[in-house]
Amino acid sequence: MLKPRVLTDVLAQVTTEGVDSCFLFRSDGTLIAHYCLTSSGTDPRVGSAIASNIWALYHKNGRGSLDEDRLQMMMLECDEGKIVMKLINNLILCICAKQSVEMGMLGKKCDALVEYLEEPLKKVGNL
């Protein structure tokens, strides 16, 4: 069984060197686990809902215009930071970082976390 506290601790491991937060959520936006370095007044469920909507829009449009079956990873550069999202089984991992973090490093952190979580999340099945 996957323990929520352990999952949060695993997500916390990538929040170093400019990485502010890490979220794991369903494609419908339901938050499974998260870790944030700073406590903000924003509910993390709001962030996961917004990120899932962005993912769904790109996934839908990518299928039609890019002739791709399934979106695997998304890297966004925003005014106040960078975001990387990647699919793990039926869940989406989202990592948010400061503008100073290199996109390649953020992608590598995301890949490493996906590789680490992929097998345990397969055993759990549909969350």
Can you give a write-up of this model?
- The chain is an alpha+beta fold.
- 42% of the residues lie in helices and 28% in strands.
- The termini are close together.
Keyword list:
alpha+beta, 28% strand, 5-stranded antiparallel sheet, 127 residues, 42% helix, 3 helices
* Spatial ordering of strands, largest sheet: 2-1-5-4-3
Which regions have little confidence, pLDDT < 50, spanning 5+ residues?
Answer: none
Q: Count the DSSP helices.
A: 3
Shape: globular
**Fraction in helix:** 40-55%
In short:
The chain is α+β, with helices and mostly antiparallel strands and 127 residues long.
Write the layout of secondary structure elements.
Layout: H1 4-12, E1 19-26, E2 31-36, H2 44-65, E3 73-78, E4 81-88, E5 91-97, H3 103-124
